Each structure stands twice: as C-alpha cells, then as structure tokens.
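User: Is it possible to get a 3D structure for a protein together with its bound compound? The compound here is zinc ion. I've pasted both below.
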Amino acid sequence: MVEKIHSQIYPLDIWLEPAHITFRAYLIKDGKNTMIDTGPPLGSPEKLAAVLKPYDLALKDVNFVLNTHGHFDHVGGNAFLKESGNPQIMIHREDAIFLEDHQSCFDRYFAPVTKASNPQEDLAKAREAFRQEMGPELKVDRRLEDNDLLPIGDSIELQVIHLPGHTLGSVGYYWEKEGMIFTGDSICGLSSPDGSLPIIYDLEAYKQSVKRLKEIPLGMLIGCHPYRGMNLPPSIIKKGSEVKRFLEDSLEVAERITEAAAALKNEREKPLPEVVDKLIAKLPANMDFKPLAQLMMPQFTLTTVYNALYRNEDY
Ligand SMILES: [Zn+2]
Ligand SMILES: [Zn+2]
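Assistant: Yes, that's possible. Here is the predicted structure of the complex:
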C-alpha cells in the first residue's frame, strides 16, 4: 500500500526494532531519486532495499541523500547506499562529524552525559556500542549551509533551513512552492508518547529555530517520528492548523525546561538522575513527562537535562 503525501513524495517506513521507535524516511521522485534520511544501520541494506522496491528502485538508483541531522536512526543507511551506487551524501556542516568521525562524535556529544548518568560506566565499551549503532563511517560529499538551494531533479528545489537545537547541525528541507518542510527531529513537540523529554542539545538555539519556522508559510511539517503536542495526538506529519500549534507547543516545552533547569542550578552537584527527576517534577503535569524509572529509553531525557544544566556554564 502506497500512502501519498504529494504526487512526488513517498513515505518509507522503517521499523527500529531494538529501540521500538517508529521511523520514517522519504523518497522524492523528480527525474532523479532523493532520499530524505535513510533509517538506522541495523537490518540495512535489506530493509532499505525492501522499502524502495515498491517504487521499482534499487539502492543504486538513489541520486541524493539529504540528511536532516546526524543521529543513527537517520544516517545509518547512508553507507549502504554509498556502497551500492554513488549518491551525493549531504548533511549540515555541524553534523558532518556524525558520519565522518565516530570516535570524536562520541567523545564530544555522548561521553559527557554517559559519564554523568552513571560514573561507573565503562566509557570504552559505551563508545564501541555507539560505533556499532552508527554503522560504517563515510565521507560527506556536500556540507550544507543555511539557505543553500538544492535542485534535486527536473523541477523541485529545496532550501536548507538550519534549525540547530536537537543537534547543532539539524536542518529542515523547505519546498517553498508547496509550503512543505522536512524537519527530521529538528522540531520535537512533546516528543514520543512514552513520556521522554524531547532530545534537545542546545535549548537556546532550539527556541530560536522554532521561532524562525513560525515566520515561514507552512502547510505541512513532515517529521520522521510520531511526536505529540499538548492537544495533538502523536503523528509524523502535521498539516494545516496543526503546524502552528505544534510549533507553539514545541516552544512552550523548551521554555518550561529552561525555567526548571534555572531553578535547579544550585543542585547541579547532585547525581544527574536525581536532578533529572526533580526537573521533571517541575514541568506542568499536563505535559505528562515521566520520571526516569518509568522510561524505556531514559537516555533521551538524561541528554536534554544534562545539556540544559551543565553544557552552558553561564549559570
Ligand atoms: Zn535525532
Ligand atoms: Zn530520530
């Protein structure tokens, strides 16, 4: 069954088994074939091949890979596509490290929160697990910058909108003519329905990114996971009036987390898991975020709170 978003855009649903996360990449057909994100490395290349098959495409037929950011569930299939053909691999400059240098990427973005979450953790082992999760390293063909225009076929041109926050190199791919944007995880609303916080690496940048999108005419915001809003049920794509509400909710959550983190600044010496649960308790009850013990994937919440409290040393 082929669900259509637009006559040239097709959803590619890829189930992340170990993490129980629903993931969706996209195929754009416009004379050339473009993939927006490529799913996780686990199970690739067979899973990627299987989702392309209904469109009479093989891995070698993909011409452009536009990554929304560097997390494993989005870039994991890149290396298999590159091995099978010669797609042009693109990602924002700030997230290129996720593809090109897994050791530095782990040390910069994941080691600090891993250590703070559990001081006994064997970092070398955690780094190895990260490398496994990411799949093979590969060279980026084009490092994207804000406002780059990408002609990806006969008629479609996408504009890169840099939306840092979730990661520093998160972007949206904006199709102005149709009022559509592919946002990946750049805008997270209230995250997935399990009660984890949205993953936000840089809260201040995130708030600016949401505000920037509020100024852009948008009829459709196309994500990769089923994020919820305050009164919006979980869905991957937000349409019409949902777009504005989703952006407002995303901003609201980020503001409340910022406030709660500021109120806990004198408790930063305490163990991270303890501070995290205090912060969750300070957020509005109707946001329905859960304490760590109730989460299947506590690292999302740990990441956001760790960075809110300790990455910025200004307070
Ligand atoms: Zn992500
Ligand atoms: Zn993701």
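The chain has ten helices and twelve strands. The longest strand covers residues 21-30.
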